[in-house]
Amino acid sequence: MTVATRASAPAGARRAPRTGRGLPAIGAADAAAVLFLVLLLIALIAPSLLARADPLAAADGQGLLAPSTAHWFGTDYLGRDVYTRVVHGARASLSASAVAVAVGLAGGLTLGVVSGYLGGVVDSVISRLIDVLLSVPGLLLSMVIVVSLGFGAVNAAIAVGISSIASFARVTRSGVLTLRSSGYVEAAQHQGASRLRTLAHHILPNAVGPVVSLIPLQFGGAIVWISSLSFLGFGAVPPSPEWGLQVSEGRQYLLSAPWLLLAPGVVIVLTVLSASHLQGLWEKIRRTSN
Amino acid sequence: MSTVSTEEVGVRPLPPVTTPPAIAVDRLSIGYAGRGRVARTIDDVSFTAPAGRTTALVGESGSGKTTIASAISGLLAENARWLGGSAALHGTDVSGLSARAWQALHGRILGYVPQDPLGSLDPLQTVGAHITESVRQAQALSTQDARRRARDLLETVHVADVDRKLRSHPHELSGGQLQRVLIAGALAGNPSVLIADEPTSALDATVQKRVLDLLEELREELDLSVLLITHDLSLAAERSDHVVVLRGGVVVEQGESDRVIAAPSSPYTRELFRDVPSLTPERYAASREQLRAHRDAVEDRSPAIAVSGLTKSFGGPSPALEGVDLSVRRGEIHALVGESGSGKTTLARIIAGLTSFDAGTVRVGDAERPRTPHVVNPDPGALQLVYQNPLAALDPRLRLVDLVAEPLRIRGTAKAAARASATDVLQRVRIPESLSSRRIGRLSGGQRQRVAIARALVLSPGVLVLDEPTSALDVTVQAQIVDLLFELRAENPDLTLVVISHDLGLVRQIADSATVLQRGQVVDHGRIEDIFGDATSEYTKRLIAAIPSPPQVLV
Fold it and tell me: What value, to the nearest 5°, has the Cα angle with vertex B214 and ends B51 and B245?
């Protein structure tokens, strides 16, 4: 799947280096990233379109087969098709990351706006809290949270989300701080706009931009973290297909059947790269449209 | 001086004149490449700048004056394309010279004084290091000699306390001093031509006058030829021997300054002259007379704004405002005049209820301002402030119609009704309806100011405070904005305007009364005729003297 993406992307992208009017220059890497993310989206919504087989179906005597035309990514120790499992694993991994980003975004926006807009003691308390969150290694923090919430895929996602609140809050707070003293916020209050109206109409909409562009980056990070938690046994439970879990299972066959580890590993790497690339593309579009 | 060029390579055949012109531009065309095509911005421009004289290149923003200056000085942007014609310095053809060839000319033949002093100096470098570097680029001197020369140069441009200034960093100097430093740097290699790109547009009137005096003095002493680039025609007429008027990349008029002032041949030049406030003090005389008659007929003589004993300190060594008294009659234009740092913006902000104050009383209409202002303005309909920079004071995300409708929406007017009123007001300030769904960033400077005024007008306030409403605009656009203000007064003769300005030419043209501030204190106040007729303070006299006044009066 990934091989096909890589090969087909540049051909389409090279044709339009600078089409001008309104659209930024789209490079080969941009096109590849978008295409890969489209494939991921299909895997998320309708995995059977990409992989017809049952991800849980084991086949006797078919264990640990090397990649071939029948099994693109080979098979695992139970004879399950790795390609099918990677495709079906997208749903668990991606939706968990989405939950994590949503939790981080909601918490970070709230904390950032409250701390930046109210200032004073509230700001000091929240800012120190953010400092603490940022000073503890994210994975460790997530593990502590999972342990206190209980094991499982959803809890792992929430834990990763809580760990990423700090980054969102920081960016939001700095945006709100700048805007709070900006000319047009003062001008709105000169027009008699209440604090709440100023916040809702002028501060939030203008502060949200940089926070939104943080989402793809945090999304990529969340995939890695959630996979790490699953790898360590804190997240998804076997036999359900999940990328981190698959890497963990493949670890024992690293020398005899490296594809078990490489296939989900490479997909994780590509997903993260595509997501962060999407952020760059987003920034470009934002700058052009301004 | 003028024999410099004969050894240079590529001398163009010139008519047998004794001294070739300092600058000769012949059928010059320049375009900028972008989006796959070249847009022509300079079209077939020809002019000469006589040696040993000052020539002014005049035009609105976008007229191409800076492009021409860059072409003459080898500083064209990378995407600029030389489409035809030639330019020569003292008879030396400089069209299409390589960067290396320019290096030999820069400093030695040509000095360039850039537009933005603070942006042109390295903030981490001392002034001394900057000038020394310029000296060493132009001349092969030892570090010692170069330093000595830097010191001499600063003395030449009359910087006081030279040794301390040499060790200073740019942010420690005032705008006028920075401009002098840049001039000193441009003079480092004893050039014979000095190009000054809007050297004074960011400066106060009195400082502007001193910098221009300096340029004139240097021209005589060092036998320089000066090319002065400016959008201010009155300044050009006063300070130059020869004027070239540009519009849209085309020369519309050129000639001896005296001749151009006395009998401008192009209608555009005449229009430019009409738009300069200091040249047409009587432009609004009829309208002002009418409004005065209206004011005198009104029985209610209670002031629109009354300030007494106002004192405000920001904690510095001297207060920002000290014992300020001020009274503005209803329906007047009152001007707050002073140089930067005189406290005029602080005073306006206190009147608008945006800044706290320490002592005194401030009344707007019947309401007294509290010493610590409300965060949220309780009565936006009484007074509206139009900020100096509309771009900073208007939300970049909102459409024009919503920006103007916002004050009404805040008061609870329904969306459709608020938008309808906003559209009306935008029409009154001549913003076409086709622009109403644009955002503020995509408008020109004059349009932005109109939108800011529209937003202030939508609540029909009794008082409008305008902070330097035209200081960032060309004279033509400035005249349009002032026309608009007088139209608004004609519609509502009771509208009181407080206008902050450092341009006394403009103040004389539009204001009924004025308050002159110097370092936070009122040094002159009263009716405008009295202030211009017999100003009591030296400061006011100096400000009045700094109004550019061309030698001949225009009819």
Answer: 50
